Amino acid sequence: MNKVVLFLLAIVASITVEAQINTPAPSPSAKLMQTVGLTEVNIDYSRPSMRGRKVFGNLVPFDQLWRTGANGYTLVTFDSDVTIGGKEVKAGTYSIFTKPGASAWEVFFYTDVVGGGTPSNWEESKIVAQLSAPVYPIEMPIETFTISIDDVTGNGANIGIMWENTYIGIPFTVPTDATVMSSIDKALNGPSSEDYYAAAVYYSSEGKDINKAKEWMNKAMSMTEKPAFWQLRQQSLILAKAGDKKGAIEAAKKSLTGATAAGNNDYIKMNNDSLKEWGSK
Length: 281
Known about the structure:
By secondary structure, the chain is an alpha+beta fold. The protein has helices spanning about 5-20, 175-190, 195-205, 210-225, 230-240, 245-260, 265-275, and strands spanning about 30-35, 40-45, 75-80, 80-85, 85-90, 90-100, 105-110, 125-135, 135-150, 155-175.
C-alpha cells in the first residue's frame, strides 16, 4: 500500500472519529407551547447568545430584515384563526421576520416556513400580517435570545422577544368568545342534524332500537335543507328495517334521483336493487 493511500485512509479515519464527537450547538433549538384561551400556540426557534458582543445596531443591524433568531426560520403555529395587527390570520404555521430599530421594530408574519437566514426573494404577497412594536429597554441584560408568550388572557397574549437590553411585545388576539358563544348556542339549541343522523346510523348498524333510529333519522332529514343521496339511502334502509316500506321506497327514490344526477353508479345500483326488493314498480 503506497504512501498516498495510507495518507488518505488516515484522513478518512480522522473525519470518522470527529463525526462521532457530539458538541453543543452554538444556537440551540427551543420549543414553546402555550394555550391562549382555547387556541394552542407553538413557537420553534433557535437561541443565539451575546458572548460579549454588542447585539442590536451591530451584530443585528438596525432597519434590516432579520430572521429573528438563528439557524432556520423562527416559526409560530396557531391551531385556530387569530388576529394580528388588525388582520385575520388563518390557523397554520408562519415564519416571523423583523426589522429591529432603536425605538420600534417592524414585525412580519410570512407564509414561507422552510429556510434559513432571510428569504433571497422577499415577496410582499407572502406577508399575512405586519405591525410596529415599540422597544422597551430592560435593565438586566439577557444573554441568550428568548421568545416568550406573555400577558396571557382568555382572548389574547403577546409574543415577547428579549435579548441584550431590549424587549418587544407582539400582540395577538384569539377567537375565544366567538368559539364559546357558538358552543353555548349549539348546546342550548339541542342536537344538530348531523348529531341525529350519526346516532340513527349507529343505532341501525349496531342492531339497537330501530324505532329510535327511525325517529332520529326523520328528525335529521327534517332539519336538513337538501339531504344528500347517501343520507337518503341510509334513511331508506332504516325505514325499511323499521317496517315502513312506503317511507323506505319514497326515500330510496329520492336517493336514486340524487345519485343519478351525481353520476354515482354504486348508489344507483343499490337503490334500484332495494326498490326491486321492496316491490316498487
